[in-house]
Amino acid sequence: MDAPKQGIDALFILLGAIMVLAMHAGFAFLELGTVRKKNQVNALVKILVDFSVSTVVYFVVGYSVAYGTTFFVSASSLAQQNGYELVKFFFLLTFAAAIPAIVSGGIAERARFYPQLLATAVIVGFIYPFYEGIVWNQHWGFQAWLKAMTGEEFHDFAGSVVVHAVGGWIALPAILLLGARSNRYKKDGAISAHPPSSIPFLALGAWILCVGWFGFNVMSAQTIDKVSGLVAVNSLMAMVGGTLTALWVGKNDPGFVHNGPLAGLVAVCAGSDIMHPFGALVVGGVAGALFVAMFTLTQNRWKIDDVLGVWPLHGLCGTWGGIAAGIFGLPALGGLGGVNLSAQIVGTLAGIVWAVAGSWLLYGLLKSTLGLRLSQEEEFEGADLSIHQINASPEREVSW
């Protein structure tokens, strides 16, 4: 029975990897629709090239940092168990590559291209997999210490904190060090609107992400015998909860409506395997409202020019998700148990501290050496022409 089981497990996690790979198209179109037209080509190119750099770095370095597995062995060794370890790498790579995709949305329209690729290599090669290994592979005794102190380990089934909160909190220092886009905030206190270039593309990106997310969450079981329909339904409930509260709090703004489901899905990842669906609905609903409130606050009051709102969406909603697992996962609230709120808070805070410290150091060094930002002239012209020498569409159509 082992041989068919190995093949099914390999196929199961491969399908999950393909679904999460498709989410990167969602990241691309979400950013493409949100930025101004002169930066659309850059949005598309960044996501694809960041993914490619992430693949090489995670294969050579990052996966080994997280799991101690090296691929510098013979092909016959790699092919064992139907190549399960290889497709597991592929699946977890798509998680790792989400970090630079998250950062990309926050620093859009004014970041230089190659320094960000270097940042991607460091993030995916060390910063992210170091914390990933601590949470998901028992590195450094952190989980054992938490269990001894609180009775439970830090629980993050599908990455509310490991992926999303870490990605959002890595993005925040980069955004602050870059500064706001030119003329976004005027000296007299006025705020210049930079509206999305395409609501249809923004919506397409959000829908692709939503569909792929069911691979992100459900396939986090990693083997067919551990798959749970509870994870799927909890993801669905959190998605719609985030949508409805974002609709209400965001006053029917289409940008908020299409980011609301993403906020809900970010938040439910950690506890999607242990919550009751009603708990997931509440968790997603809180996340949708949290995103709208904090996006508005950061943009208008604090004047943090986070273009796609990646810190509120991933950083804060991911933080909420890590803590919420310790609340709505409890049997008293309909959950399956096996979690402790104190452990969830400590594990979440550890991820935030590591992400912020690593990001400040990395982007601070890049800023002082290579430089992070396009020149004022390049930014005015747009990243498409300044970096790629082409616009998303021609200035005029050829008539014959």
Distinctive features:
400 residues; mainly alpha; 16 helices; 71% helix; 0% strand
Could you describe the 3D structure shown?
The longest helix has 33 residues, at 2-34. 71% of the residues lie in helices and 0% in strands. With 400 residues, it is mainly α. It is built from 16 helices and no strands. It has helices spanning 2-34, 40-67, 75-78, 80-96, 98-106, 113-136, 142-150, 160-178, 199-218, 229-249, 254-268, 277-301, 310-328, 341-369, 376-381, 383-388.
Structural class: mainly alpha
How much helix, percentage-wise, in residues? Answer: over 70%
The SSE order reads HHHHHHHHHHHHHHHH
* Tally of contiguous helical segments: 16
Itemize the secondary structure elements and their pairings.
Elements: H1 2-34, H2 40-67, H3 75-78, H4 80-96, H5 98-106, H6 113-136, H7 142-150, H8 160-178, H9 199-218, H10 229-249, H11 254-268, H12 277-301, H13 310-328, H14 341-369, H15 376-381, H16 383-388
Helix pairs in contact: 1-2, 1-4, 1-5, 1-9, 2-4, 2-5, 2-6, 5-8, 6-8, 6-14, 7-14, 8-13, 8-14, 9-10, 9-11, 10-11, 10-12, 11-12, 11-13, 12-13, 13-14
